Amino acid sequence: MLVDDSDFTAASLENFLWVTFTRSDPALDTHGIASFIREKHWGCRGPLVIDARLKPHYPDPLEPDPKTVQKIDALAARGGPLAHYL
User: Is 1 part of a structural domain of the chain?
Assistant: First the structure.
């Protein structure tokens, strides 16, 4: 994996999956040693490399607003109006 922020990516499985599948295009960003195409299917015999770096044409990552996060957490807290849905 080629990533911009390895600490974030390695922090959890959720982060790894998010970065892998939102920052890469399988047709363009997947590379492998001894790659081949057999019956219209791509494969490789060696290690697989996925380029999951932010590309120049991607928008900037969204950062959560701390006040909004606090409000949502309060709504979802035990006894809050959304608690029985979670």
Answer: no
